[in-house]
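Appendix B, record 7
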Amino acid sequence: MEKTKKSSLMSKRVFQKYIFLSVLLIVPVANWLLFWFTVNIQSILLAFQDNRTGAFTWWNFQYFWQELTSVDGEIGLAVVNTLKYFFSNLLIVIPLSMIIAFFIYKKIWGYKTFTIIFYLPSIISSVAMVQIYMQMLASGGPIDKLFGGILNIPVEGFFSRPDTATTMIVLYTIWTGFSSNILLFVGAMTRIPIEVFEAAKLEGCKPGREFISIVFPLIWPTISTMLILSFTGLFNASGPILLFGADSATLKTTTISYWIFKEVYEGGMGGINAVSATGLCFTVVAVPLILFVRWVAEKVPAVEY
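Structure tokens (predicted):
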């Protein structure tokens, strides 16, 4: 009798366990089926369909190639601008974020000023930051006066000129991109045992050498993760063009994500089918690139604390 009760109790517990696990799995599986698998399959099918009739066509890919390679093509300009944002993050924001984070972590002279300057964009509203930045760059603004009076560059609003508008937005994204990266790097540095720095100090290690020989290898997992994330968002990289209210056609500030927005919501020539074809082409390029970067990052051996 007792054995029967114990067996029944165990069966009930096993059943409850499987029910609990099933409920936990239902949500992510349903999310994957509805919002990833279904949407992506539909997007691939749209890339091969006519925008009006729904019939099979290669026109969407021809339109993409024409816009990519022609002199006045918007996609070609969007790719160039997107790469500017991407490489500014990869070559400027991430390396400088590491150096600034090291200054803050070591509490080197002036670190409080660095903290305020680079954390400010994450505290103030992005709309307010954009307005402040635009006023500084407007004709007669402080930066305009500085460049016009000292460097003898034409006193004209940098943001109103096609040859400088994209550069100004890139500079804004560089400034506002520091805060989150600095927080991650400072967090990674705080996990390094203090004994490592004390031993380096006893050996007469200077801050520069300390950063290169100790900090950089020990926070490599964080650096590699950020590099992979940067390449993952390669074709999504863009500045806050909508917040700046920029006329992308006149000022040539369009990016891939902004071009997609215009095509879908403003009735572009290609429509959502051309957007799907464009996304498919960029995915074919991006996925092998991301896998290669991940493979390279994993080949660098991690240093134990």
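Remarks on this record: Residues 2-47 form one domain. The chain has a mean pLDDT of 80.
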